[in-house]
Amino acid sequence: MIPVKGFEGRKVGVLGLGRSGLAAARALAAGGAEALCWDDSAEARATAERDGIEISDLTRQGVWRDISALIVSPGIPHLYPEPHRVIAAAMAAGVPVDNDVGLFFRSLGGKDWDRFDTVPRVIAVTGSNGKSTTSALIHHILEISGRRSQLAGNIGRGVLDIDPPGDGAVVVLELSSYQTDLARALTPDVAVFTNLTPDHLDRHGGMGGYFAAKRRLFAEGGPDRAVIGVDEAEGMYLANQLSEAPEDDRVIRVSTKDRLDGFAWSVFARKGFLSEYRKGKQVGSIDLRAIRGLPGAHNHQNACAAYAACRALGMAPKMIAEAFETFDGLPHRSQVVGEKDGVLFVNDSKATNLDSAAHALLAFDRIRWIVGGQMKDGGLAALRPHLGRVAKAYVIGRQARETALEISDIPHEVCETMAVAVARAAGEAEAGEVVLLAPAGASFDQYDNFEKRGEDFTAEVRKRL
């Protein structure tokens, strides 16, 4: 646990008693504060009380007179589409509103770090797509190299729930726009921006607000090094804002589209090869094509970002390349779950929308595609340019027959259940093909979440290995 500093002997409100809220309450208490906790859910309040958390009704009149700050869980809106009533009351009373990420950065470090030979570092990763894989890959590289590392934030543990980092240790944080938007302190040593595509627009009041939330990670404190994906206009703009000139090596530009050899420091991937350039000279190269845990251009972008972040810590290219070889991918995100007779089985259950499904389809040349679920508005039309890679589609879900009509011009079969789809795809697949679960729809018609769907796919595959 990271004890929260700066609130000793003071009362602090905590709104939302999920993972981050409970961790914040305990970390505040460990730092000598009195945490007054509330959740709109009676069930959540009862669970917290059983765990020894003090419940205080933050909706009461006059409650803000003695409260020094309000800590808000990331899922609760503070501005758009409208502020939660507790947050609105706190702001009206002039009470500072923050979140667990802000508390983490204000509380990390201190005089006890003077005894360290190497001060701990923090790498923070944000972006629309790939931030989970990039964060996990950085963590994997550090662990394989023997450097102590913890993974937290939007993945792994809550930021305040980790152990205080020791000598030379690294904390890797995945941060969503919900987390960066509200944090009052954001001071990582290395900050990574993967990319930007439309998401959570209602929460941020549009694309501009969404980008502004991501940008705060780089603007609020100023990292020592910034790793910026520049394949979208927003990333190009951010890199330009942060650098003084092309010779400024505080910014490491990343691309899977362009050859970036005109900057002080860049990492790019073209035709499956990662290249690192410094001051116009190539200083590192990795063949990504045979790395099973990082298939496709989207994962090559993740590899470039993770490589750049680790190089910013001074790690050798050879060490990073060796760690790439042993990375299996995150569960449900282009995860290789098995291979038999030359057929690869890949679980990308997280591909719940058309953009992520397109990335999954582009990663392989000949695919037995398991698709279906609760489809989004617009259906599968946007995937049509990629369907030439599909040898056959196996359609699952309660709307399987309706979904099949959208891809009636390619070989397909209505299977409805995962068991039937995997059995049929595995039975018909030939050497060199990939049986790919990339549903392009939500899981809720048949499963509690995309994880359960991916676990079902994995279980059915392993019956046949």
Can you describe what's shown?
By secondary structure, this protein is α/β, with parallel strands linked by helices. The chain folds into three domains: 11-98, Rossmann fold; 108-325, Mur-like, catalytic domain (UDP-N-acetylmuramoyl-L-alanine:D-glutamate ligase), CATH 3.40.1190.10; 335-462, Mur ligase, C-terminal domain (Protein-Tyrosine Phosphatase, Chain A), CATH 3.90.190. The protein is 32% helix and 22% strand. Strands 6-7-5-8-9-10-11-12-13 form a nine-stranded mixed β-sheet, sandwiched between helices. The chain has a six-stranded mixed β-sheet with strand order 14-15-20-16-18-19. Helix 5 (131-144) crosses helix 10. The radius of gyration is 23 Å and the shape is globular.
In short:
The protein has 465 residues and is of the alpha/beta class. The protein contains 15 helices and 21 strands.
Query: CATH architecture of the largest domain, please?
Result: 3-Layer(aba) Sandwich
Shape: globular
Characterize the main sheet. Answer: 9 strands, mixed
Unreliable sequence segments:
none
Radius of gyration over C-alpha positions, nearest whole angstrom:
23 Å
Could you name the CATH class of the largest domain? Alpha Beta
How many domains, as an integer? 3
- Gap between N and C termini, in Å? 42 Å
Bin the strand percentage: 15-25%
Give the mean pLDDT.
Answer: 94
Let me know the CATH homologous superfamily of the largest domain: Mur-like, catalytic domain
**Fraction in helix:** 25-40%
Question: What's the β-strand tally?
Answer: 21
What is the number of helices? 15
> Which fold name corresponds to the CATH topology of the largest domain?
UDP-N-acetylmuramoyl-L-alanine:D-glutamate ligase
Strand order of the largest sheet: 6-7-5-8-9-10-11-12-13
Class from helix and strand fractions: alpha/beta
